Amino acid sequence: MGIVTTLWGVGVGPGDPELITLKGWRRLQAAPVVAFPAGVQGRMGVAEQIIAPHLKPQQVRLPLEFPYVLDENQLQQAWHIAAECVYDYLQQGLDVVFVSEGDVSFYSTFTYLGSAVQQLDPTVPLGIIPGICSPLAAAAVLGLPLTCGGDRLAILPAMYHADELTQAWGWADVLVLMKVRAVYPQVWQWLQTHNLLAQAAVVIWATTPQQQVYYPLTRWPALELPYFSLLLVWKYASPFRSDKKMGHFTI
Ligand SMILES: C[S@@+](CC[C@H](N)C(=O)[O-])C[C@H]1O[C@@H](n2cnc3c(N)ncnc32)[C@H](O)[C@@H]1O
């Protein structure tokens, strides 16, 4: 007979601990083992910080190492080691909840962890509870609709070039750039060339105490951005867009 315990992936939202779903919170409360990406240099990881207020002392906390590298072999190895740690608990009859910042199906490590666990044992059931992902959080912070009417939305992950932006902009009405830190100066130039700076915003650490907003981007050609930053640009002015949200502000 196969495994009867479940590996749960729970999206815990973009930062504010109140932005976890009721279903996610209940699943978290019921979990004997709670896994999350380990933080760097002894600091808590972001998902761990979000759930820390919700955890009980008797719950096992399982930090899993996922290196920030592009090397496929190193990544595969890390996913395999993490999967073995998780599988140990599943075999003991204990459910494991893996928490992911934002949503668990949206550029999340859970995808790789779940697949590595199922490579060890294809009978392990995976349960998924979605969370609020960062583009939705950023739109809420700005007080703007992300999309409306027939808007076509493009979301680009890391490592894009100006050509990719131009191509996506050819069909999209709203563009979201994840992991924008490394390419911000090039993106700013591209926005300037296409006369889009007035319709573009950067949101840093959305919904957390470190949150910052830069909108519009006209005055900000050289921002030093942290990893948790994203950029949004709209093709058309929205009827809900409000001037009071403009400038650089923190919460
Ligand atoms: C690996 S992706 C994780 C996405 C996440 N699973 C989600 O649902 O949003 C990491 C990127 O998401 C974006 N991001 C995630 N949370 C954010 C936040 N609170 N504020 C701003 N950007 C965020 C940043 O662009 C960051 O580089």
Automatic annotation (TrEMBL):
SUPFAM superfamilies: Tetrapyrrole methylase. One of its GO terms (biological process) is methylation. Residues 6-214 form the Tetrapyrrole methylase domain. The keyword Ligase does not apply. Pathway: Cofactor biosynthesis; adenosylcobalamin biosynthesis. The keyword S-adenosyl-L-methionine applies. Keywords: Cobalamin biosynthesis, Methyltransferase, S-adenosyl-L-methionine, Transferase. InterPro entries: 4pyrrol_Mease, 4pyrrol_Methylase_sf, 4pyrrole_Mease_sub1, 4pyrrole_Mease_sub2, CobI/CbiL, CobI/CbiL/CobIJ_dom. GO terms for molecular function: precorrin-2 C20-methyltransferase activity. Gene3D superfamilies: Cobalt-precorrin-4 Transmethylase, Domain 1, Methyltransferase, Cobalt-precorrin-4 Transmethylase, Domain 2. Belongs to the precorrin methyltransferase family. This is Precorrin-2 C(20)-methyltransferase. It comes from Parathermosynechococcus lividus PCC 6715.
